[in-house]
């Protein structure tokens, strides 16, 4: 772990202590607003939107708005790192790097308040990326539309790459996602009377196995797709036949067509369970995120530029099956997202993840130079 010498590493640690779930980022929002309030105000315009923040750094002779987005929320999990600055919120953790993302955004913003460029720069602090999804409602908000940027950039910490490496690609970077919740409703009863009950352990087990056939039997093997069940809840006690089961999961695809096809197959299999087990079933698709599709020319230009700058390694990576609601912004505004190497032993969403903080100043420096270049060019 690096020493506490860099102001934005310090800020990351401050944010790391206070992870909050989507649309509950009250303390986080306050830290962002407090940080902004300590900067010279004459170049800053600030708006809040729900628990998010929009901060505009006014340019010297603006004709366009260049945007930079960070997410803000933490995850509902117990932290198990060795950090001295562990989460102070039980059952909450920044395990997806949003503390890094916010500190980096504030580092870039601070630079431009002190060293303005010609164009306006918009910094979006977006709530609820992990769920239920803040990007789409923020994109549709009046607050955003009033300052709608012409281009938009973002990064995500990348545990698989060493510090000093960035990885991205023109085109699809992150998958389409849909959450999946299936409730099965049968009849509970005494363990000794199976014929008078309708056991949802058996129905849920059958369904879990059948769902796994969708990817292996119904999807083109060359078209990547995932159906993961992350949580199954059934029963209360060893001698009670449970009449209710809940299966929770996520679907990931690299095309919208595959997403629709998988949902169609899920509906069909669930209907089969209803018929076969004489139970009722309800499906809820939860939050859906569209793919993160990097604008090809801009992304290629960024990768070429970063290679010539020579201080970071640039990798053209494959698509990831992770989801990111930043994709909604990129459906309407040209831009890109990239992975920032933070080289960790444990991956994203792991309770022991300790991303390397040396990546924070590297990212601030890189994106400061990129935004300066874009703000001074005609595109
Ligand atoms: C980068 C990352 O880990 N993103 C999350 C986004 C959540 C997607 C959605 N709520 C779902 O689970 O379907 C991810 O899990 O990929």
Automatic annotation (TrEMBL):
EC number: 3.5.1.47
Residues of the active site: 71, 130 (proton acceptor)
Gene Ontology biological process terms, A to Z: diaminopimelate biosynthetic process; lysine biosynthetic process via diaminopimelate
Keyword Lipid metabolism in annotation: no
Cofactor(s) needed: Mn(2+)
Peptidase M20 dimerisation domain boundaries: 182-271
Family statement drawn from the similarity comment of this UniProt entry: Belongs to the peptidase M20A family. N-acetyldiaminopimelate deacetylase subfamily.
HAMAP family membership: DapEL
Superkingdom as given in the UniProt entry: Bacteria
Signal peptide: none
Gene3D superfamilies membership: 3.30.70.360, Zn peptidases
Keywords recorded for this protein, A-Z: Amino-acid biosynthesis, Diaminopimelate biosynthesis, Hydrolase, Lysine biosynthesis, Manganese, Metal-binding
Gene Ontology molecular function terms on file: metal ion binding; N-acetyldiaminopimelate deacetylase activity
Name of the molecule in the record: N-acetyldiaminopimelate deacetylase
Pathway note: Amino-acid biosynthesis; L-lysine biosynthesis via DAP pathway; LL-2,6-diaminopimelate from (S)-tetrahydrodipicolinate (acetylase route): step 3/3
InterPro entries, per database record: AcetylDAP_deacetylase, Amidohydrolase, Bact_exopeptidase_dim_dom, Peptidase_M20, Peptidase_M20_dimer
Reactions accelerated catalytically: N-acetyl-(2S,6S)-2,6-diaminopimelate + H2O = (2S,6S)-2,6-diaminopimelate + acetate
Cofactor binding annotation: The Mn(2+) ion enhances activity.
Species of the source: Melghirimyces algeriensis
